[in-house]
Amino acid sequence: MISIRNLVKRYDDQLALKQLNLSVEKGIIFGLLGPNGAGKTTLISILNGLTNFQEGEIEILGLPLRKNLKAIRRRSTFIPQSLALYDHLSVIENLRFFAGIQSISGETLRKNIDYAISVNRLQPLTEKKASTLSGGQKRRLNIAIGLLNNPDILYFDEPTVGIDPESRGEILETIRSFKHDNKTVIYTSHYMEEIEKICDEAAILNAGEIVRQGSLTSLLQNNNDHSAVIECIHPNREQLSKIADGHDGTELFNSNKLMVLRPNSKKMAALLADLEAKDIQLKQIRYDSINLESLFISLTSRENPDA
Amino acid sequence: MLKAMLIKEFILIMRDKHALAALFIMPSIFILIMSMALKDTFGNDHALLNYTIIDRNQTVQSEQVNTLLRVNTLFQKHDLVIKDQTELQKALNGDVHFVISIPSDFTENLGKKQLDTALLHIDVAADVKPEMVSLVKAALAGIIRQQRLQKIQNDLKIFLPDIAQKLDGFSFEAQDVLDIHYNGMKAEQVPSSTQQSVPSWIVFGMFFIIIPMSTIFINERTQNTLLRMHAMNISIPALFTGKIVPYMVINQIQVWLMIGVGIFIVPLLGAEALTLGNSIAGLVMVSTGLSLAAIGTSILIAVSVNTVEQATTIGGISNILFGAIGGIMVPKFFMPQVMQTLTNISPMSWGLEGFLDIFLRGLGAQAVIKESLALAGFGVGLLMIAWLIFSYRTKRGI
User: Fold this and answer.
1) Which of A42, A97, A147 to mutate to test the interface with B (most CBs of B within 10 A)?
2) Using the beta-carbon criterion (under 8 Å), do A77 and B231 form an inter-chain contact?
3) ipTM score assigned to the predicted complex
4) Does domain B44-177 have CATH number 3.40.190.10?
């Protein structure tokens, strides 16, 4: 469905994507993970023909991207993170406008609008102005607009940012339903639990490279069995970073947390002694089996301490 | 596709009260206010300046100055008694624009070949423009010339009565000695203030689209609606066309609304009605050219700046600058030569010349081809630059 080989993207002297290789099968939900600046948005922009690239080959729906951009775009959709809709238009006016500019008309127009409305449960809201909708309802309208061309591939760029848990649940449910329609979804998010909940496969992108890719089961199986997270109270970040550097398998994240892979009593005792020596107060120590979040942190936090 | 974009753009404008006010109400009110405000400046039946006379001569000749000046409709006499400098200052700080002092030796000096002191002394209020003072100077110099000639005639009567008799009945009145014909108008037809000023304000009003147009465009860009449209196979030319067409229609509505105000509303408030001229086609040509220039400016600003605030500031300032340079705010003929040459760089000046050809000079469509093409070329040029900038920014994601 999507095949990327040796993709290189440069912004002036900066290498945004380095010889990237990726393959996504038809009908799956594929999670794209990575800290800020990892290259996720650049990759999504390239796949939608919004940004050009210098080297490599991309095939989507069996067609080379460069030569078949228009045809590919007709069968795919990009749902941006921001609410790319018109506040002064009603729900139905928004849908009619975005369908109209794609030259969708007649019976197809009616059918596709009905589909977009029903999938996103917007039936009671069609005459309401977008500006009067709640955050979650706007997000659903944002997704509905993306369904107007009945796409085979849907690109979601963090679609649940800034909404309440209930709306988030509804949106995830909607996205999961696309799988039953045999649609392929590329899903980027910062929320690991979302990826774990809806994705079949995922890739972790860091500094323009894919550092791990595969099914969620295989990603977690390939890793160690558990981890420990030590949360500190108002620590000096530099001090904490130095301590992390001095201990194998220990990463600093979120400025105040240390993650220890394969923690054992010797490792933990040495680490806690260092923390005590620096008079760093602890809030809690949590032991957990390895999950996507700890894997993500272990793979990306060296370069991105804020991940 | 274009139909969807047109419908969307019209709905957005119709539901935006501020845009509606900026596009239709403000230009109409503007036309009304400016026509009324300039009614007396361009008309010739209302006084422009108030004056008073201090007559220390008290002779037939000094009374004659008074009488001849009263005939001039540009000036309105205020009967004040001014005894000293304080009262003079007070008068000039009030409603009086100039005070004519006629010295006691006025009659005596009137016949002198060499003058030691001026025949009349004029005190002028500080806020009176030099060109207005020139009007006063010309009027008084004319009166003095007439009086001095009369003096010579009276002297001649003693020595050469035959020649003196020949000078009897010489007319000094402007309407007798001058035949004034306004270009493109019938004999004795005089252009009204409405006819002279409304074209400028129509041009100015058409550029009011800069702010609402660029604001909507920037909102679309920052909310990624344009990006989404781009991902839906909407090319930049198609996107621009979707903006150009509705705003050209809006500009035409503006023009006819402002003309309507000039024809129907302005006369209700006492000024003369606007007349259309001889060429509707010419009018449409110039306004279409102006429309493209205004739309090109709007889109260029919208794609070049980052925020609505920047667009509002730059859009507003460029509108005023175009107007100031283009002879909208100060008529071109009032400007020094350098500035008159400089007006040629402003598209508003080209549009104004085109409109004046139609409204004032009675010319047809052929006369405005040059201005219309220049305006259209200017607009298309800016749109091309905007295309390059927008395309660069879209690819770079900035």
Assistant:
1) A97
2) yes
3) 0.79
4) yes
